[in-house]
Structures are given as structure tokens and as C-alpha cells.
Amino acid sequence: MAETIPVGHAPEHAHEHHEPGFVAKYLWSTDHKMIAMQYLFTGSAMALLGGFFAYVFRSQLAFPGMSVPGFGLVSPNEYNALITNHGAIMIFWFAMPVLIAAFGNFLIPLMIGADDMAFPKINRLSYQIFLLSVLVLFVSFFVEGGAFGGAWTMYPPLSATAEYNQTPLGTTLFVTAVALEFVAFLMGGINFVVTAMNSRAPGMRMYDIPIVVWMIVLASIIFMASVGPLVAGAVMLLFDHNLGTAFFDPKRGGDPVLWQHLFWFFGHPEVYVVLLPAVGIVAEIITVFARKKLFAYKTVLYTAFGTGVLSFTVWAHHQFIAGIDPRMANVFTITTLLISVPVAEMMFVYIATLYGGSITLETPMLWALSFIATFLIGGVTGIFLGASGTDIYLHDTYFVLAHFHYTFVPIAVIGTFAGVTFWFPKMFGRMLDDRLGKIHFWGTVIPFNLIFIPLFVLGVAGEHRRIWDFTQFPELSAPWMRDLDKLATLSLWVMLSFQIVFLVNFFWSLRRGPKAPKNPWASNTLEWTADSPPPHGNWKELPTVYRGPYEYSVPGREQDYWPQNVPN
Amino acid sequence: MIERLLPAASTSATEIDFLFSLIFWLVGFWFVLSEAIFFGLILRFRKREGRKAQYVTGELQSEKRWITVPHLLVLVCDVFIVFFAVRAWHQVKQDLPTAPTQQVVRVEGAQWAWIFTHPGPDGKLDSADDIRKVNELHVEVDRLYHFQLTSRDVLHSFSVPVFRLKQDAIPGRVITGWFQPTKTGEHDVQCAEICGIGHGLMPARIHIETSEQHAAWIAANSTVSVAAVAGR
Ligand code: HEM
Ligand SMILES: [Cu+2]
Ligand SMILES: [Cu+2]
Questions:
Q1: What integer pLDDT is reported at residue A84 of this predicted model?
Q2: Could you read off the pLDDT tens digit of each residue along chain B, which spans 232 residues?
């Protein structure tokens, strides 16, 4: 590998010497901020693709038989491939790369006062493998037989036997892409943990680390601890599918339910892997725009840790009716409802932080607050599914689907917009337009609720997910149900169109926006003491830390903030 | 609660609908309360000229109370819900009731249809008079049924929404479950587990009939006549 940018040297010299060329700067850089941007842009582009897929399959559901503008008629196997890739893309190629990799890469060194990641080359390799996984996924759309359509959960025997899925190449490429993506994030995670633990600025104690850094570190640890079995499972699946082994094929002595355990042992912690960075981002923003110290900092940390540990004990609540021993359901009901305690506590902490604040509603704050308001709906509807009795009925209906979108959309969409609008000045050295930001905000959250509230109702009325056309079912053809389906779909169209406002704001501000000062939000944390945008190496001289990150409105001080690096 | 949107037609449906309503009101109350407090605080503490934010660390016991008390209440509600969830689960999935007039039907998922085997006039499965139907299940109201569920290829999931019943079908395994219809009528059966290209195309129907209707259906459909069975 060509080494264009020297690494592993002291920051005082060398960083400013040379202006790297295009390839070195944009493709081969080891700078954590550049890698963050690569993840941010790749992940966001994938979100647009995942959104386009949602547009296509929702249009099919609401208007069966209609040719979807921009796609055409949706056949049943195309429908399956669209939902499969929508789900997989949103989780693996949007939520993870943006929330963990982009924000983790951008924020960790800047917030702990380091000049770069601990292992910059592993960091770069992590992105390159991620990019490879994207390419493999793309290829899977165009091969003979078509893309994989067995849902992002890849349950065998459907995913393990070409005769059953009828997409021989598509399946192999899909599973390979997922496995590669895991490898990329394993490499990234190692970096985050080591960097946050070892490269902190002088004076920064454990409890002076901003919450969002903690959260990304905890998320990385959870990810690393949960993903192993699934990588092994993915390899077993590839063997079954291509080499004739039978790990998961019951006809020859395998067990398909084994895959479900491997998948959900990863899959459920995964929810917390993306949740934690989002709640971290929200914590940073709320303290700044409420001018408040974070309520009970240590409690937040302990509950996040508790959530992480508990998240390993709940996986089989996805399998209540999958043919496991029915007595197991009781255990998993208990653990599942227990996990509601730390998660509720995190929300209570944020609500308590608002008390006594001086709240202003700039765009990032609107996003952060809407996270709490909507995530609460995701949380309470989860109780219906954790309670084994009701899950018998609700499992795999649109109720489940609405529930997890009420957690994932706050996490991935709202969390990302909160983070991007908040750190945009630091990332790009310009300010976003607040008015366009607010239009985009309302144009996103209102239709979002109008998509998924109807889907809760439809789920309770018995509509199952992953079905191509409901009009085949007399009970699901009731006019009021068809109308709610149309409402959900039209709201999706509205929500997607408002994303154009964001894109315009983003790219216009990137070039034309007013120049950002170093610390536009009067924030305490270290990233705001670097230039906007920070140069390679971040600071000429690394900062020294004197206090925790949330000392806002300290009595007796003239300024209502007290940056971490200011001696007194 | 659920019956408003979809009829309840089995004994389990009553149990599950009760649990659903219980959770709905319980978490609904806490949800509305938290949102109200949340929006209340945003309004109450909007920035005003000349007012500074308060310095509250949340580290004092007296302050922490504001989150530990709700936290304990959540825990209490959880215990309550676990109790009723486990009770419902026991009745619907864990205990397999029997009754003197009980019947057994076989349900097989296949790419992409449901194959139902009904016992014929002799009331027993796996005899010459069995009635096999594709995408059509006939049962008698108020009678207790055991079903033997399996799959011929991939995973499917047998879901009868009016019964609030769902169970995955796994190739190589026979899973026994039960239901007891309480109302006559004709309803949808859906496959709830993605099972390949035709997954969206396997709608089936369940016919819940009075005992006379059911007897007539059996007589009309069994290849072996009632008389032949009786005379054996
Ligand atoms: C706001 C725009 C979105 C809409 C309207 C939407 C809609 C849907 C719908 C209708 C399905 C189910 C298709 C079916 O089962 O028949 C689905 C599946 C899914 N969505 Fe979304 N979604 C959106 C955004 C997201 C986001 C942001 C995420 C996660 C970060 C996400 C994750 C998933 C997952 C994991 C599935 C499951 C796929 C499967 O059934 O295998 N979605 N989405
Ligand atoms: Cu099926
Ligand atoms: Cu199916």
C-alpha cells in the first residue's frame, strides 16, 4: 500500500507541510475526519437508496397493480428483494456507518483532545472493506436470478438453499456483503475503544469524557462482543448455500432455529449498538441548548452499561413463536421487560435535564427533543412485544414494523440530523441555514408520524408484513384499511420530498453558508476549541482539560459556559 | 381493544385481547404523563431575557429522587405485566388442554400453499377417509382442536388473526398446538414468515362451521362414505 501521509509522528511538525493530492486526500487519507466524511457520505447515499426502495414497495402496497413512477410494476419477487435490501441497507449500510463510524471517527479524537485515532491505517482499511461490502451488495442487484429476497434476517433454509430462494448468486453476494461489513466494523470498533481509553488529553479523567464518546465506545464493545457468532453463522450459511454442508438444513440433520439464535444474539444488541450513539448525540445537544449540566452524568453511564449487558439476554424474544421450548418464553419476557427500566431511565434523565434550563429551539435542538418524544413511542410499544402473550398475535405484523421504526427512525434519521446540524459548522467551517433547517424538520417529523401511526392500527387489525398485496385477503381489503395504507404511503412521499430541502441546505451552505466561528453554540467540549474545520492533526498544541464537559450556567461565573480547556 | 378492529373467534383471543388492553392502559398512562411533563418543561423553561439557567447536577439524592421514583414505578408495572403475560402465555402456548370430543388437524406449509388435512368421518387422522384441502381449513365451532404443524420445505408461519394464533412451521419438526373456535364465520389465514418468491401469494381461509354444517361438509368431501366407516 502506498503511504502518502506520514502517521505516528508528533503533531507539532509535519501535518502542515504538504498539500496532499486528490487520491491521497479523499481516498487514501488516514485522517480520522476524512474517514468520518467518507462514512458520512457513503452512509447517507445508502439511506437515499433505502428510502427509494421504501417508496417503491410502499407504493405497491397502497396502489396494487400501479406502475410505480421511477421503477415500474413491482413483481412479488422484486417486492421481496426490495424489503430485504431496504432493511439491510438501513441497518448495516446507513445506521451503523453514519452513527458509529462517521460520528465516532469525527468526534472521538476531537472530543478527547487527540490528534488522530490510535491506529489510523486500520481505520482506513476499515472504510475500504466497508466500501467493498457496498460494491458487493450493488453487484448482487444485477446478477442472474436477481437480488436476495429472504429478508434481512436471512433465515435458513430459505437462505441456505438455492433451490428454495431461486436467487443463487444474489444470496451468496448478499451474505458475503453482510459478512464483509461486519469485518469492517470490527476493525473500526477496536480503534474507538483504544483511542478513547489511551489518547485522552492531559487532565481528562474518565468522568470528564463527553457522554457521546462513552456511548460510541460502549456501542463498539457491545458490537464486538455480539458479532462473532454471526460472522461464524454467515460463513456457515455460505457453506450450506454453496458447498453442500447442512448446518441449517433439517433435511440432512441441521437446525434452522440455530441460525435464529446466532442472528438475534447479534441482532438485538445491535439495536443498542445504534441506539447508544444516538442518545449520546442527544445528550450533547440538549445540554448546550438548555444551558444545563447533564442530569446525573454517572447514572447515564451506568444505565447505558446496564442496557448493554442486558441486551445480551433478550435475543429470544424474537423467537417466541419460532418453535423454541415454550417455557423459555417466560425467561425472555422477564429480561425483555427488565431492559425497559434502564432505557426509560435514560429518557427520564433527559427530561430532567430540561428542568430549570434556558431552552432555545435551534434546529439541532428540535431534532434532539423530537428524538425523546418519538423514541418514547418506540419504547412503550415494545412492551406489547416483550410480553410473550401479546407477541403471539403481534409478531410479524405491521405493529412490530411500526414499533421498530419508532425506534430506528429516531435513532438513525433523527439522530443523524441532530448530529449533522449540530456539528456541521465544525465539520465544514460554515453555518447551515436555520430556517431551511426548520422547514426540513417539520416536513420530516410530521409525515413520519403519519406513516407509522396508521401502520400500528393496521398491524393490530391483522395485517402481516412482507406480503406483496393485501387485496388478496378479504379481511384486509376493508376500505378503511386500504385508506390507512394510502395515508401511510402518501405521507412517505411527502417525507421523502422534504429531504430535498435538506440536501439543498446542505450543499448550498457547504459552499455559500456564512463562515462558522470556532464555537458557534457556546459549547464546552474540546472539538469547539479547534479551528472550523480542524486541520489535519486537529490542534497546533493539544488542549489540556480542567473539568467535565457539562459545566453550563455555573453560579458566580459571568459566562454561562465554561469550556473544558479553560483553566479558570 | 383488538376486537374493535378484528373479531375475536377463539378462547385464546379473549386472553390475549385482555392482556393487550391491560398493557395499553398501563403504558398509555405513563406515556401520556411523560410526554406531558416533557412538553411542559420545554414550554416552562424557554429562554427568557434576564433569566439564567439553574445549575442542577442531578448528583444529590434529593434530585435523583426525580428519576429513581419513576424508575421504581416502571419496575412495578413491569412485574405486573410479566405476571399477566406469563399467565396468558401458559394458557395459550404452554398448556395443551384436552377434551373428550377433541379433534386433530394437520397443517403443512409448502412453497407456496397451506395444506390442511382433516380427519374424515372416523374422526382420526392418517386413515383412508382423511380430507386434504389446499388453502382451506374447515373446523367446527366450540370444539377443541389440536393442530400438528410442519413444513415441507422452508419456514412458514401459520397465522390465524381472528384466533390471535401464530406458530412457525419448521421442516423436520412437528409442532403441536391448539385452538378452540368460539364463533362461526370465514376468515383469513396468513403466512407470517417470509418463505420465498410466493410468500405474498399464499392466502388461505378458515371456515368455522356449526356442527351440522361441518358434518355436511365432511360427508360431501370424504372419499370414504360415512356409512362405510360406521359399518366397520
Ligand atoms: C421513513 C422512511 C421509512 C419507511 C416508510 C419504511 C417503511 C418500511 C416498511 C413498510 C417495511 C416493511 C416491508 C414489509 O415487511 O412488507 C420496512 C422494513 C424495514 N425497515 Fe423501514 N422504513 C423507513 C425507514 C427505515 C429506517 C430509517 C430504518 C433503520 C435504520 C428501517 C429499517 C427497516 C428494517 C430493518 C426493516 C425490516 C425489513 C424486513 O422486513 O426484512 N427503515 N420499512
Ligand atoms: Cu409461507
Ligand atoms: Cu410465507
A1: 97
A2: 899 999 999 999 999 999 999 999 999 999 999 999 999 999 999 999 888 889 988 888 888 888 889 889 989 999 999 999 999 999 999 889 999 889 999 999 999 999 999 998 888 899 888 999 999 999 999 999 999 999 999 999 999 999 999 999 999 999 999 999 999 999 999 999 999 999 999 999 999 999 999 999 999 998 765 555 554 4
Residues of A in contact with B5 (CB under 8 A): 457, 460-462
What digits encode the pLDDT tens for the residues B4-59? 999 999 999 999 999 999 999 999 999 999 999 999 999 999 999 888 889 988 88
Give me ligand 1 centre to Cα A50, in Å. Answer: 8
Question: Which helix or strand (DSSP H or E) is residue A128 part of?
Answer: helix A120-142
The three three-digit cell numbers of residue A61, written as one number:
402496497
> In 10 A of CB A567, how many CB atoms?
7
Which residues on chain B are in Cβ contact (under 8 Å) with A384? 20, 23-24, 27
What is the rounded distance in angstroms from the CA atom of residue A560 to the CA atom of residue A291?
Answer: 7
In 3-state terms, what secondary structure has residue B169? strand
User: b or e along A153-173 (b: 16 or more beta carbons within 10 Å of the residue's beta carbon)?
Assistant: bbbbbbbbbbebbbbbbbbbb
Contacts of A337 in chain B (CB under 8 A): 78, 81-82, 85
Ligand 1 nearest-atom number relative to CA A88: 35
A467 Cα nearest atom in ligand 1:
16
Pocket of ligand 1 (CB under 6 A): A 51, 54, 57-58, 83-84, 86-87, 90-91, 94-95, 151-152, 401, 405, 408-409, 412-413, 448, 451, 465-466, 492, 495
Judged by CB atoms closer than 8 Å, whether chains meet at B196 and A150 is answered as yes
Other CB atoms within a 10 A radius of the CB of residue A65 amount to 9
Whether B91 and B177 have beta carbons less than 8 Å apart is answered as no
**What percent of chain A lies above the pLDDT cut of 90?**
88
Q: Give the atom of ligand 1 at the shortest distance from the alpha carbon of A95.
A: 30
Minimum distance, in Å, between the CA of residue B124 and any CA atom of chain A: 25
Question: For residue A510, what are the contacts with CB-CB under 8 A and spacing of at least 6?
Answer: A428, A430
pLDDT digit string (tens) for A340-372? 888 888 999 999 999 999 999 999 999 999 999
C-alpha cell of residue A399 = 405493529
**Closest C-alpha to A368, from A420, A418, A443:** A418
Name residue B103's beta-bridge partners: B145
**Rounded CA gap, A249 and A208, in Å?**
52
pLDDT tens for residues A167-204? Answer: 999 999 999 999 999 999 998 899 999 999 999 999 99
Closest residue, chain B, to A357 (C-alpha): B53
Distance in Å, CA B197 to ligand 3 centroid: 9
User: CA B117 to CA B133: how far, in whole Å?
Assistant: 6
> In this predicted complex, what is the ipTM?
0.94
Residues in chain A, total: 568
**Core vs surface per residue A174-208: b (16+ CB within 10 A) or e:** bbbbbbbbbbbbbbbbbbbbbbbeebbbeebeeeb
Please tell me the number of the ligand nearest to residue A410's CA. Answer: 1
Ligand 1 pocket test: pick from A55, A60, A79, A86 the residue with the most ligand atoms within 8 Å of its Cβ.
A86
What pLDDT is stored for residue A2 in this prediction? 40
CA torsion A400-A403-A408-A409 (nearest 10°) is 120
Facing residue for B197 by CB, picked from A76, A295, A467: A76
Residue A16: strand, helix, or coil:
coil
Phi, then psi, of B55 in degrees rounded to 5: -100, 100
CA distance A151 to A163: 17
Strands across the sheet containing B165-169: B136-140, B204-209, B185-191, B156-160, B165-169
**Position A324 confidence tier, pLDDT thresholds 50, 70, 90:** confident
pLDDT at B122 (0 to 100): 87
Provide the grid cell at A375.
Answer: 423514541
